[in-house]
Amino acid sequence: MDWLTTVDHKKIGILYLIAGGFFFLVGGLEALLIRIQLWKPLNDFVSADTYNELITMHGTTMIFLAAMPMLFALMNAVVPLQIGARDVAFPFVNALGFWTFFFGAVLLNVSWFTSTGAPAAGWTAYAPLSGPAFSTGHGMDYYVLGLQIAGIGTLIGGINFLVTIINMRAPGMTFMRMPMFTWASFITSALILFAFPALAVGLAALMFDRVFDANFFDPNNGGNAVLWEHIFWIFGHPEVYILILPAFGVISEVISTFSRKRLFGYSSMVFATILIGFLGFMVWAHHMFTTGLGPVANALFSIATMLIAVPTGIKIFNWIFTMWGGSIKFTSANLYAVGFIPTFVMGGVTGVMLAAAPADFQYHDTYFVVAHFHYVIVGGLILGIFSGLHYWWPKMFGRVLNETLGKWTFWMFYIGFHLTFFIQHFLGLLGMPRRIWTYLDGLGFNEMNLISTIGAIMMGIGTIMFFLNVVITNAKPQNAADDPWEDGRTLEWTIPSPPPEYNFKQTPLVRGYDAYWKEKMDGHKGMTPAEPIGSIHMPSPSILPFTMSLGLFITGFGLMYSRDWTFITEHIGFYVAGLGLLITFGSMFLRSVYDDHGFHIEPEELEDKGVKA
Ligand code: HEM
Ligand SMILES: [Cu+2]
């Protein structure tokens, strides 16, 4: 019950981590099934239809239900601590964001258990394939409504972080003193604010096509199928930056901490991040070179895309210069961070190759593309998340993950990753198309696919090793120090692990970049408080975020089956949808009329807990 009603950012971070971790396993299982199907030519391990469901759900799950929530987990766990705040700006909205994501994710996955199966039009849901003419079952309805609900959660989560970072920084923490992870979370939240509404509009239009017989994307009735591609990629390209920027943030923190050096070129890092965020919106049509936009559009989008390599290169060099001459400690967190650099560079190089429009005509829809985006997404984002998890685990849970096992996990996962995806570049250049269910013998694809499958199994083993580590660590006593790495530079390392409910007994006074490090260098033991000890105002827990999201879930179901459910009366689906909305709006109404002032923690209670500021 405690977990259903919590509005504490640290607990919500843990909820995101559990849910995201679970869906990472689901998506990983789907990936393994795909790879087993492809390990030899003319395999019939799964049917062609199931294969389509698997690639659609794998991509959708990994992006929306695994990667995004794991990033939100880190952001929730870390950002308020790094800026010296007691919580996010809107704790209630934070909880609401989690529950809408969660119910959307569940809705999407319920499709596996229905008679018409999971969505099967690819995670990009290209029209008209995703429209009612070609996707006749309910699979795509689950995609449209599940993602819509989950997307609302992401959007309000992003807005909450924007407000938090603008408004809740401790005294003295100017923008140019903010830790890099907070900066990255800030820009990511801004991208969410601009990108997710595009997705919401696209999904709403597709919903109208599917549920209410509209014709947005149906060319036979005056609609436009390429319109979907524009809408989807205006969301979809910024989305990859939404994913990668927080990983950049993690890498900056980890590399600087374990090199015992200030991040090289901090201000150029900040401006590079902003520039990447901005350019990320200008390049969506590089996914559409082959749709026939014409040479002028292709050339412009091609150049704009290549421009992103400049700020990205700045970041890469800054990380290397940070390590240069540092006293580097290869903890598992740092292994992931250092391993990230060459991997991400390779993904970037193939990205520039793909950005050359004429070359893309050759690579398009081959395994070269699959190799490219996995280098970026897995080799970038997932390594970044693993790095961040090892780094902040003690802060989140009060226990340090086992280092030896952590290093074994890293090597297993890292080698498995390169085995899986490096070879796919060559499969692609040889002409193996993506999204195919099986291939003929004698095309020269056999050995490479086998190697790729072996690599995938290694990644699977690595993932299981990580979960083992979590279980083992959880059985140990909760004894992590405030600053377990001993070289912590930012504010989260000045408070106990895990932090008390209110984080900071006294809000700290920030005197420079790397606030805690600066105090250490000046010979101080901790931060100087910016306020006297006083009573602390905390928000009350609430079940309403849960019920609001549950209402949306019920609405989704109702809409989906509006055509089929005719028992009792016709259109009972619409009544069910109405009931769901009633629950949601009823909860909103309760929230508005019921005055909740939260509660206070008095100074005497603060003393009992023996907390250092
Ligand atoms: C064990 C690790 C993984 C393996 C073996 C794997 C394998 C695959 C394969 C074989 C495909 C199908 C390519 C095609 O035929 O089009 C695919 C697609 C995809 N994967 Fe992964 N993947 C893994 C991890 C991930 C992760 C961690 C993410 C994201 C965080 C991810 C995101 C995607 C996306 C977005 C697609 C595109 C789906 C589509 O083409 O519609 N994958 N993956
Ligand atoms: Cu793109």
Total beta strand runs: 2
Percent strand? under 5%
Counting DSSP H or I runs of 4 or more residues, the number of helices is 19
- Mean pLDDT figure: 94
Strand order in space, largest sheet: 1-2
Bound molecules: protoporphyrin IX containing FE, copper (II) ion
> How many strands, what sense, and barrel or not for the largest sheet?
2 strands, antiparallel
Rounded to the nearest angstrom, the distance between the terminal CA atoms is 30 Å
| Elements, N to C (H/E) | HHHHHHHHHHHHHHHHEHHEH
Shape: globular
- Runs in which pLDDT lies below 50 for 5 or more consecutive residues are none
Structural class: mainly alpha
Helix content: 55-70%
Compute the CA-based radius of gyration: 24 Å
Explain this structure.
The radius of gyration is 24 Å and the shape is globular. Helix 3 (48-82) crosses helix 7 (225-259) and helix 13 runs antiparallel to helix 14. The protein has helices at residues 2-5, 9-37, 48-82, 91-110, 139-167, 180-211, 225-259, 266-279, 295-307, 309-323, 332-355, 357-363, 367-397, 403-430, 446-474, 515-521, 544-560, 572-593, 603-608, and strands at 536-538, 599-601. Helix content is 65%, strand content 1%. It is mainly α. It has a two-stranded antiparallel sheet with strand order 1-2. Bound molecules: protoporphyrin IX containing FE (HEM) and copper (II) ion (CU). Protoporphyrin IX containing FE binds next to helix 2, helix 3, helix 13 and helix 15.
